[in-house]
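Hi L., both proteins are below.
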Amino acid sequence: MKKSILLGLLSVLLLSANAFALPVGPGLQTVLNNIAVDGTNNVNAETGHLVDGSDSHWNITATGTSAATFIIELAGYAAYNSFGIYDIANTSNRVELFSAADTNKDQVSVSIDGSGNIVVADITDLSFSFGKFAGATFGYYINVANTQNTYFSNSSLNENGTDHMLAYRGVGELVDLDGTGTKFGAGTWTDEEWILAFEDLYNGGDNNFTDLVVMVESVEPVPEPATMFLLGTGIIGLAGARRKKKN
Protein backbone atom coordinates (compact mmCIF):
# COMPACT_ATOMS: atom_id res chain seq x y z
CA MET A 1 0.00 0.00 0.00
CA LYS A 2 2.79 2.44 0.93
CA LYS A 3 4.56 1.67 -2.33
CA SER A 4 1.34 2.35 -4.23
CA ILE A 5 0.91 5.72 -2.54
CA LEU A 6 4.49 6.73 -3.30
CA LEU A 7 4.09 5.71 -6.92
CA GLY A 8 0.83 7.62 -7.07
CA LEU A 9 2.46 10.74 -5.69
CA LEU A 10 5.29 10.49 -8.22
CA SER A 11 2.81 9.98 -11.07
CA VAL A 12 0.74 13.01 -10.11
CA LEU A 13 3.87 15.16 -9.82
CA LEU A 14 5.03 14.10 -13.26
CA LEU A 15 1.61 14.67 -14.79
CA SER A 16 1.40 18.08 -13.17
CA ALA A 17 4.82 19.07 -14.48
CA ASN A 18 3.86 18.05 -18.01
CA ALA A 19 0.53 19.85 -17.78
CA PHE A 20 2.17 23.15 -16.87
CA ALA A 21 5.36 22.86 -18.95
CA LEU A 22 6.67 26.10 -20.42
CA PRO A 23 8.85 26.61 -23.48
CA VAL A 24 12.11 27.97 -22.08
CA GLY A 25 14.61 29.74 -24.31
CA PRO A 26 18.07 28.11 -24.72
CA GLY A 27 19.79 31.06 -23.05
CA LEU A 28 18.84 29.88 -19.56
CA GLN A 29 20.44 26.47 -20.10
CA THR A 30 23.59 28.32 -21.12
CA VAL A 31 23.48 30.28 -17.85
CA LEU A 32 23.10 27.05 -15.86
CA ASN A 33 25.92 25.38 -17.79
CA ASN A 34 28.20 28.38 -17.26
CA ILE A 35 28.03 28.08 -13.47
CA ALA A 36 28.63 24.31 -13.54
CA VAL A 37 32.28 23.51 -12.86
CA ASP A 38 32.34 20.85 -15.59
CA GLY A 39 30.49 23.09 -18.06
CA THR A 40 27.34 20.93 -18.21
CA ASN A 41 24.61 21.37 -15.61
CA ASN A 42 22.59 18.33 -14.57
CA VAL A 43 19.56 20.58 -14.08
CA ASN A 44 17.57 20.89 -17.30
CA ALA A 45 16.18 24.39 -17.90
CA GLU A 46 13.27 23.05 -19.94
CA THR A 47 12.00 20.41 -17.52
CA GLY A 48 13.75 20.91 -14.17
CA HIS A 49 11.72 23.78 -12.72
CA LEU A 50 8.89 23.51 -10.22
CA VAL A 51 5.33 23.28 -11.49
CA ASP A 52 3.74 26.71 -11.68
CA GLY A 53 1.70 27.25 -8.54
CA SER A 54 4.05 25.30 -6.31
CA ASP A 55 6.65 28.10 -6.35
CA SER A 56 4.33 30.95 -5.36
CA HIS A 57 5.08 31.21 -1.63
CA TRP A 58 8.25 30.55 0.38
CA ASN A 59 9.56 30.20 3.91
CA ILE A 60 13.06 30.42 5.30
CA THR A 61 14.16 27.05 6.70
CA ALA A 62 15.27 26.28 10.25
CA THR A 63 18.53 28.17 9.78
CA GLY A 64 16.54 31.38 10.18
CA THR A 65 18.50 33.26 7.51
CA SER A 66 18.43 33.09 3.74
CA ALA A 67 21.27 34.27 1.51
CA ALA A 68 20.69 35.49 -2.03
CA THR A 69 23.38 35.76 -4.69
CA PHE A 70 22.96 37.70 -7.91
CA ILE A 71 24.12 35.35 -10.69
CA ILE A 72 23.49 37.21 -13.94
CA GLU A 73 21.20 39.67 -15.69
CA LEU A 74 20.78 39.44 -19.44
CA ALA A 75 18.03 41.91 -20.22
CA GLY A 76 17.28 45.01 -22.21
CA TYR A 77 15.82 46.41 -18.99
CA ALA A 78 18.81 45.42 -16.84
CA ALA A 79 19.30 49.03 -15.76
CA TYR A 80 15.71 49.15 -14.48
CA ASN A 81 15.12 45.74 -12.86
CA SER A 82 14.97 45.24 -9.10
CA PHE A 83 14.35 42.05 -7.13
CA GLY A 84 12.96 41.35 -3.69
CA ILE A 85 10.34 39.72 -1.49
CA TYR A 86 6.72 40.71 -0.92
CA ASP A 87 4.13 40.18 1.79
CA ILE A 88 1.57 37.62 0.56
CA ALA A 89 -1.07 39.43 2.64
CA ASN A 90 -0.32 42.74 0.90
CA THR A 91 1.58 42.66 -2.39
CA SER A 92 2.37 46.38 -2.21
CA ASN A 93 4.37 45.70 0.96
CA ARG A 94 7.79 44.79 -0.44
CA VAL A 95 11.39 44.62 0.65
CA GLU A 96 14.00 45.12 -2.07
CA LEU A 97 16.98 42.76 -2.07
CA PHE A 98 18.74 43.82 -5.29
CA SER A 99 18.34 47.21 -6.94
CA ALA A 100 18.92 48.14 -10.56
CA ALA A 101 22.40 49.28 -9.54
CA ASP A 102 23.46 45.87 -8.25
CA THR A 103 25.64 43.67 -10.39
CA ASN A 104 26.55 40.02 -10.83
CA LYS A 105 27.76 38.20 -7.71
CA ASP A 106 26.40 40.77 -5.21
CA GLN A 107 25.02 39.11 -2.07
CA VAL A 108 22.44 39.82 0.62
CA SER A 109 21.10 37.85 3.58
CA VAL A 110 17.48 37.95 4.78
CA SER A 111 16.09 37.08 8.20
CA ILE A 112 12.36 36.87 8.99
CA ASP A 113 11.01 35.90 12.39
CA GLY A 114 7.61 34.37 13.12
CA SER A 115 6.04 37.80 13.55
CA GLY A 116 7.20 38.95 10.12
CA ASN A 117 10.03 41.23 11.23
CA ILE A 118 12.62 41.42 8.45
CA VAL A 119 16.30 42.30 8.50
CA VAL A 120 18.21 42.50 5.21
CA ALA A 121 22.00 42.66 5.36
CA ASP A 122 23.73 43.72 2.16
CA ILE A 123 26.93 41.68 2.32
CA THR A 124 28.45 43.53 -0.60
CA ASP A 125 27.78 47.08 0.62
CA LEU A 126 27.84 46.31 4.37
CA SER A 127 24.46 48.02 4.89
CA PHE A 128 21.15 47.04 6.51
CA SER A 129 17.46 47.56 5.75
CA PHE A 130 14.31 46.50 7.56
CA GLY A 131 10.71 45.56 6.89
CA LYS A 132 7.58 44.10 8.44
CA PHE A 133 5.29 41.46 6.88
CA ALA A 134 2.10 39.92 8.24
CA GLY A 135 3.94 36.64 8.80
CA ALA A 136 7.00 34.62 7.91
CA THR A 137 5.73 33.43 4.50
CA PHE A 138 6.64 35.56 1.48
CA GLY A 139 6.85 35.63 -2.29
CA TYR A 140 9.50 36.86 -4.72
CA TYR A 141 9.06 39.65 -7.25
CA ILE A 142 10.84 41.47 -10.05
CA ASN A 143 10.01 45.11 -10.71
CA VAL A 144 10.69 46.66 -14.12
CA ALA A 145 10.75 50.40 -13.46
CA ASN A 146 11.01 51.31 -17.14
CA THR A 147 7.65 49.68 -17.95
CA GLN A 148 6.15 50.13 -14.45
CA ASN A 149 5.38 46.40 -14.31
CA THR A 150 5.87 44.14 -11.32
CA TYR A 151 5.82 40.36 -11.72
CA PHE A 152 5.29 38.00 -8.79
CA SER A 153 6.23 34.40 -8.02
CA ASN A 154 2.49 33.84 -7.59
CA SER A 155 1.46 33.79 -11.25
CA SER A 156 -2.19 34.48 -10.46
CA LEU A 157 -1.13 38.03 -9.54
CA ASN A 158 0.39 38.64 -12.99
CA GLU A 159 -1.35 39.78 -16.14
CA ASN A 160 -3.41 36.87 -17.54
CA GLY A 161 -1.81 34.60 -14.93
CA THR A 162 1.45 34.50 -16.90
CA ASP A 163 4.37 32.73 -15.21
CA HIS A 164 7.33 35.10 -14.88
CA MET A 165 9.52 33.06 -12.48
CA LEU A 166 10.96 29.57 -12.71
CA ALA A 167 12.46 27.86 -9.63
CA TYR A 168 15.17 25.19 -9.93
CA ARG A 169 16.29 23.07 -6.98
CA GLY A 170 19.86 21.90 -6.60
CA VAL A 171 20.65 18.24 -7.25
CA GLY A 172 24.22 18.12 -5.93
CA GLU A 173 25.85 19.84 -8.90
CA LEU A 174 29.29 21.36 -8.31
CA VAL A 175 28.92 25.01 -9.26
CA ASP A 176 30.98 28.20 -9.19
CA LEU A 177 28.79 31.33 -9.19
CA ASP A 178 31.77 33.56 -9.84
CA GLY A 179 32.88 31.57 -12.85
CA THR A 180 36.54 32.11 -12.00
CA GLY A 181 36.92 30.44 -8.62
CA THR A 182 38.50 33.58 -7.19
CA LYS A 183 35.61 35.20 -5.33
CA PHE A 184 33.40 32.43 -4.00
CA GLY A 185 35.09 29.29 -5.22
CA ALA A 186 33.28 26.11 -6.18
CA GLY A 187 30.61 24.57 -3.97
CA THR A 188 27.75 22.09 -4.09
CA TRP A 189 24.35 23.30 -5.27
CA THR A 190 22.33 21.59 -2.53
CA ASP A 191 18.62 20.80 -2.29
CA GLU A 192 18.13 23.78 0.05
CA GLU A 193 19.42 26.15 -2.62
CA TRP A 194 17.27 27.35 -5.49
CA ILE A 195 17.95 29.26 -8.67
CA LEU A 196 15.16 31.69 -9.54
CA ALA A 197 14.99 32.80 -13.16
CA PHE A 198 12.79 35.71 -14.21
CA GLU A 199 11.19 36.91 -17.43
CA ASP A 200 10.76 40.71 -17.44
CA LEU A 201 8.70 41.22 -20.61
CA TYR A 202 4.95 41.76 -20.54
CA ASN A 203 2.82 38.59 -20.74
CA GLY A 204 5.89 36.35 -20.81
CA GLY A 205 7.67 38.05 -23.70
CA ASP A 206 10.24 35.74 -25.25
CA ASN A 207 10.25 33.24 -22.33
CA ASN A 208 14.03 33.25 -22.11
CA PHE A 209 13.95 33.67 -18.29
CA THR A 210 17.46 35.13 -18.28
CA ASP A 211 16.40 38.67 -17.47
CA LEU A 212 17.38 38.24 -13.83
CA VAL A 213 18.81 35.05 -12.34
CA VAL A 214 19.58 34.66 -8.64
CA MET A 215 20.44 31.83 -6.25
CA VAL A 216 18.63 31.77 -2.91
CA GLU A 217 19.55 29.36 -0.14
CA SER A 218 17.96 28.03 3.05
CA VAL A 219 14.43 28.47 1.72
CA GLU A 220 11.62 26.09 0.86
CA PRO A 221 8.42 26.48 -1.19
CA VAL A 222 5.12 26.40 0.68
CA PRO A 223 2.58 24.10 -1.03
CA GLU A 224 -0.64 25.84 -2.02
CA PRO A 225 -4.02 24.23 -1.26
CA ALA A 226 -4.74 23.63 -4.95
CA THR A 227 -1.47 21.76 -5.38
CA MET A 228 -2.12 19.63 -2.31
CA PHE A 229 -5.65 18.90 -3.56
CA LEU A 230 -4.27 17.72 -6.89
CA LEU A 231 -1.76 15.47 -5.16
CA GLY A 232 -4.36 14.17 -2.73
CA THR A 233 -6.94 13.30 -5.36
CA GLY A 234 -4.30 11.56 -7.45
CA ILE A 235 -3.20 9.41 -4.52
CA ILE A 236 -6.80 8.61 -3.51
CA GLY A 237 -7.67 7.69 -7.07
CA LEU A 238 -4.74 5.31 -7.40
CA ALA A 239 -5.42 3.78 -4.01
CA GLY A 240 -9.05 3.25 -5.01
CA ALA A 241 -8.02 1.59 -8.26
CA ARG A 242 -5.74 -0.76 -6.35
CA ARG A 243 -8.55 -1.66 -3.92
CA LYS A 244 -10.92 -2.29 -6.82
CA LYS A 245 -8.38 -4.55 -8.48
CA LYS A 246 -8.05 -6.61 -5.29
CA ASN A 247 -11.83 -7.03 -5.04
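That was the first. Here is the second:
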Amino acid sequence: MKLNLKKPICFFDLETTGVQIAKDRIVEIAILKINPNGSEEMKRWLVNPEMKIPAETTKIHGISDEMVSDAPTFKALAKDVKEMITGADLGGYNLLKFDVPVLAEEFLRAGIDIDLSKHRIVDVQNIFHKKERRTLEAAYRFYCDKALDGAHSADVDTRATYEVLLGQLERYEDLENDVDFLSEFSKHRNTFADMAGFIHFDEEGKEIMGFGKHKGKRLDDLFKTEPGYLGWLLDADFPLYTKKIITQAKIRNQFGG
Protein backbone atom coordinates (compact mmCIF):
# COMPACT_ATOMS: atom_id res chain seq x y z
CA MET A 1 0.00 0.00 0.00
CA LYS A 2 1.07 3.58 -0.71
CA LEU A 3 0.03 6.48 1.51
CA ASN A 4 -2.13 8.91 -0.46
CA LEU A 5 -0.40 12.25 -0.06
CA LYS A 6 -1.11 15.78 -1.24
CA LYS A 7 2.13 17.06 0.30
CA PRO A 8 5.13 15.43 2.02
CA ILE A 9 4.66 13.94 5.47
CA CYS A 10 7.49 13.73 8.01
CA PHE A 11 7.29 10.88 10.46
CA PHE A 12 9.57 11.64 13.38
CA ASP A 13 10.57 10.23 16.74
CA LEU A 14 12.50 11.71 19.63
CA GLU A 15 14.61 10.10 22.31
CA THR A 16 15.05 12.42 25.29
CA THR A 17 16.62 12.81 28.71
CA GLY A 18 13.21 12.20 30.33
CA VAL A 19 9.49 12.81 29.99
CA GLN A 20 9.08 16.33 31.41
CA ILE A 21 8.21 18.60 28.50
CA ALA A 22 9.46 21.79 30.15
CA LYS A 23 12.75 20.39 31.44
CA ASP A 24 13.98 17.46 29.38
CA ARG A 25 15.94 17.67 26.16
CA ILE A 26 16.31 15.74 22.93
CA VAL A 27 19.24 13.32 22.62
CA GLU A 28 18.23 11.75 19.30
CA ILE A 29 15.87 12.72 16.50
CA ALA A 30 14.98 10.77 13.39
CA ILE A 31 12.83 12.05 10.54
CA LEU A 32 11.46 9.92 7.72
CA LYS A 33 10.11 12.17 4.97
CA ILE A 34 7.66 10.54 2.57
CA ASN A 35 6.98 12.49 -0.62
CA PRO A 36 3.77 12.31 -2.69
CA ASN A 37 5.63 10.38 -5.41
CA GLY A 38 6.61 7.71 -2.86
CA SER A 39 10.28 8.70 -2.57
CA GLU A 40 11.77 8.73 0.92
CA GLU A 41 14.39 10.71 2.80
CA MET A 42 15.70 9.64 6.21
CA LYS A 43 17.72 11.82 8.57
CA ARG A 44 18.95 10.89 12.05
CA TRP A 45 20.91 13.03 14.46
CA LEU A 46 22.39 12.40 17.88
CA VAL A 47 21.96 15.58 19.93
CA ASN A 48 23.96 16.94 22.83
CA PRO A 49 21.25 17.85 25.38
CA GLU A 50 23.60 20.06 27.39
CA MET A 51 22.56 18.20 30.53
CA LYS A 52 23.20 14.81 32.11
CA ILE A 53 21.24 11.85 30.78
CA PRO A 54 19.85 9.90 33.77
CA ALA A 55 21.10 6.32 33.98
CA GLU A 56 17.54 4.97 34.06
CA THR A 57 16.81 6.79 30.80
CA THR A 58 19.95 5.43 29.15
CA LYS A 59 18.75 1.94 30.02
CA ILE A 60 15.63 2.57 27.92
CA HIS A 61 17.07 4.08 24.73
CA GLY A 62 20.75 3.14 25.08
CA ILE A 63 22.11 6.65 24.58
CA SER A 64 24.73 7.72 27.12
CA ASP A 65 26.45 11.00 27.95
CA GLU A 66 29.59 9.75 26.20
CA MET A 67 27.70 9.04 22.97
CA VAL A 68 26.45 12.61 22.66
CA SER A 69 29.40 14.50 24.14
CA ASP A 70 30.67 15.51 20.69
CA ALA A 71 27.24 15.69 19.03
CA PRO A 72 25.78 19.05 17.94
CA THR A 73 23.27 20.80 20.18
CA PHE A 74 19.67 21.13 19.02
CA LYS A 75 20.30 24.84 18.49
CA ALA A 76 22.96 23.91 15.95
CA LEU A 77 20.58 21.50 14.21
CA ALA A 78 17.38 23.54 14.48
CA LYS A 79 17.54 25.15 11.03
CA ASP A 80 18.13 21.77 9.35
CA VAL A 81 15.21 20.21 11.23
CA LYS A 82 12.95 23.15 10.42
CA GLU A 83 13.92 23.01 6.74
CA MET A 84 13.07 19.31 6.55
CA ILE A 85 9.58 19.66 8.05
CA THR A 86 8.61 23.00 6.46
CA GLY A 87 5.68 22.51 4.10
CA ALA A 88 5.10 18.96 5.31
CA ASP A 89 2.51 17.22 7.43
CA LEU A 90 3.74 15.44 10.56
CA GLY A 91 3.30 11.84 11.63
CA GLY A 92 4.43 9.81 14.60
CA TYR A 93 3.59 7.67 17.61
CA ASN A 94 2.39 9.56 20.71
CA LEU A 95 3.16 12.71 18.76
CA LEU A 96 0.47 14.99 20.17
CA LYS A 97 1.13 14.30 23.84
CA PHE A 98 4.92 14.25 23.80
CA ASP A 99 7.05 14.61 20.66
CA VAL A 100 5.40 17.73 19.21
CA PRO A 101 5.40 19.66 22.54
CA VAL A 102 9.04 18.69 23.20
CA LEU A 103 10.11 19.69 19.69
CA ALA A 104 8.25 23.00 20.04
CA GLU A 105 10.13 23.67 23.30
CA GLU A 106 13.48 22.95 21.67
CA PHE A 107 12.72 25.28 18.77
CA LEU A 108 11.82 28.09 21.19
CA ARG A 109 15.02 27.53 23.18
CA ALA A 110 16.91 27.78 19.89
CA GLY A 111 15.23 31.10 19.14
CA ILE A 112 13.06 29.73 16.34
CA ASP A 113 9.35 30.53 16.68
CA ILE A 114 7.68 27.82 14.61
CA ASP A 115 4.02 26.99 15.19
CA LEU A 116 3.87 23.20 14.90
CA SER A 117 0.13 23.28 15.60
CA LYS A 118 -0.31 24.68 12.08
CA HIS A 119 0.89 21.39 10.62
CA ARG A 120 -1.60 18.62 10.03
CA ILE A 121 -0.62 15.88 12.47
CA VAL A 122 -1.29 12.16 12.21
CA ASP A 123 -0.80 10.46 15.58
CA VAL A 124 -0.59 6.74 14.86
CA GLN A 125 -0.85 5.93 18.58
CA ASN A 126 -4.22 7.65 18.84
CA ILE A 127 -5.50 5.69 15.83
CA PHE A 128 -4.16 2.51 17.40
CA HIS A 129 -5.66 3.25 20.83
CA LYS A 130 -9.04 4.05 19.32
CA LYS A 131 -8.91 0.72 17.51
CA GLU A 132 -6.89 -1.69 19.67
CA ARG A 133 -5.16 0.07 22.64
CA ARG A 134 -1.61 -1.40 22.77
CA THR A 135 2.08 -0.39 22.66
CA LEU A 136 4.16 0.31 19.53
CA GLU A 137 5.79 -3.13 19.71
CA ALA A 138 2.37 -4.76 19.94
CA ALA A 139 1.06 -2.52 17.17
CA TYR A 140 3.95 -3.52 14.91
CA ARG A 141 3.33 -7.20 15.55
CA PHE A 142 -0.44 -6.77 15.18
CA TYR A 143 -0.48 -4.74 11.96
CA CYS A 144 2.79 -5.83 10.31
CA ASP A 145 3.10 -9.39 11.67
CA LYS A 146 6.74 -8.77 12.56
CA ALA A 147 8.76 -8.40 15.75
CA LEU A 148 10.15 -4.91 16.38
CA ASP A 149 13.90 -5.37 16.81
CA GLY A 150 15.73 -2.31 18.13
CA ALA A 151 12.74 -0.60 19.77
CA HIS A 152 13.53 2.77 21.41
CA SER A 153 16.03 3.60 18.70
CA ALA A 154 14.57 6.68 17.03
CA ASP A 155 15.17 5.52 13.44
CA VAL A 156 13.71 2.04 14.11
CA ASP A 157 10.66 3.46 15.91
CA THR A 158 10.11 6.06 13.17
CA ARG A 159 10.03 3.55 10.31
CA ALA A 160 7.94 1.12 12.38
CA THR A 161 5.39 3.88 12.99
CA TYR A 162 5.13 4.56 9.24
CA GLU A 163 4.65 0.84 8.53
CA VAL A 164 2.01 0.57 11.28
CA LEU A 165 0.02 3.40 9.69
CA LEU A 166 0.08 1.61 6.33
CA GLY A 167 -1.10 -1.54 8.13
CA GLN A 168 -3.91 0.37 9.81
CA LEU A 169 -5.10 1.70 6.45
CA GLU A 170 -5.19 -1.84 5.06
CA ARG A 171 -7.01 -3.27 8.07
CA TYR A 172 -9.72 -0.67 8.70
CA GLU A 173 -12.05 0.13 5.82
CA ASP A 174 -13.40 3.20 7.62
CA LEU A 175 -9.97 4.84 7.72
CA GLU A 176 -9.56 7.02 4.65
CA ASN A 177 -6.17 7.13 2.92
CA ASP A 178 -6.09 10.89 3.28
CA VAL A 179 -3.97 12.97 5.66
CA ASP A 180 -6.81 15.44 6.34
CA PHE A 181 -8.99 12.56 7.57
CA LEU A 182 -6.17 10.83 9.48
CA SER A 183 -5.14 14.05 11.18
CA GLU A 184 -8.70 14.73 12.30
CA PHE A 185 -9.25 11.12 13.39
CA SER A 186 -6.06 11.01 15.47
CA LYS A 187 -6.68 14.26 17.35
CA HIS A 188 -7.29 14.42 21.07
CA ARG A 189 -10.91 14.80 22.08
CA ASN A 190 -9.94 18.10 23.67
CA THR A 191 -8.17 20.61 21.48
CA PHE A 192 -5.08 21.90 23.25
CA ALA A 193 -4.06 25.51 22.69
CA ASP A 194 -0.52 24.93 23.95
CA MET A 195 0.04 21.31 22.79
CA ALA A 196 1.15 20.26 26.29
CA GLY A 197 -2.44 20.28 27.55
CA PHE A 198 -2.27 23.04 30.15
CA ILE A 199 -4.33 25.45 28.02
CA HIS A 200 -7.36 24.24 26.06
CA PHE A 201 -9.84 25.80 23.64
CA ASP A 202 -13.51 25.95 24.59
CA GLU A 203 -16.38 25.41 22.15
CA GLU A 204 -16.08 29.00 20.95
CA GLY A 205 -12.35 28.70 20.31
CA LYS A 206 -11.31 30.75 23.36
CA GLU A 207 -8.32 29.75 25.49
CA ILE A 208 -9.28 28.24 28.84
CA MET A 209 -7.32 26.78 31.73
CA GLY A 210 -7.00 23.02 31.49
CA PHE A 211 -5.97 22.34 35.10
CA GLY A 212 -5.94 23.66 38.65
CA LYS A 213 -8.38 25.79 40.61
CA HIS A 214 -9.30 27.86 37.54
CA LYS A 215 -9.85 24.91 35.24
CA GLY A 216 -12.37 25.79 32.54
CA LYS A 217 -12.04 29.55 33.00
CA ARG A 218 -11.07 31.72 30.05
CA LEU A 219 -7.67 33.40 30.04
CA ASP A 220 -9.34 36.66 29.00
CA ASP A 221 -11.48 36.58 32.17
CA LEU A 222 -8.56 35.62 34.40
CA PHE A 223 -6.52 38.58 33.19
CA LYS A 224 -9.31 40.75 34.59
CA THR A 225 -9.96 38.87 37.85
CA GLU A 226 -6.76 36.93 38.64
CA PRO A 227 -3.80 38.63 36.90
CA GLY A 228 -1.49 37.53 39.71
CA TYR A 229 -2.28 33.88 39.04
CA LEU A 230 -1.35 34.18 35.38
CA GLY A 231 1.76 36.10 36.37
CA TRP A 232 2.71 33.19 38.59
CA LEU A 233 2.28 30.79 35.66
CA LEU A 234 4.63 32.90 33.55
CA ASP A 235 7.29 32.78 36.28
CA ALA A 236 6.78 29.10 37.17
CA ASP A 237 8.31 26.01 35.58
CA PHE A 238 5.85 25.52 32.72
CA PRO A 239 6.69 24.79 29.08
CA LEU A 240 7.82 27.75 27.02
CA TYR A 241 5.01 27.16 24.53
CA THR A 242 2.43 27.34 27.33
CA LYS A 243 3.92 30.65 28.45
CA LYS A 244 3.84 31.85 24.84
CA ILE A 245 0.06 31.27 24.68
CA ILE A 246 -0.47 33.09 27.99
CA THR A 247 1.74 35.98 26.87
CA GLN A 248 -0.17 36.30 23.60
CA ALA A 249 -3.43 36.47 25.57
CA LYS A 250 -1.88 39.05 27.92
CA ILE A 251 -0.85 41.28 25.01
CA ARG A 252 -4.28 40.88 23.43
CA ASN A 253 -5.97 41.99 26.65
CA GLN A 254 -3.58 44.87 27.29
CA PHE A 255 -3.67 46.33 23.81
CA GLY A 256 -6.96 45.02 22.45
CA GLY A 257 -5.32 42.92 19.73
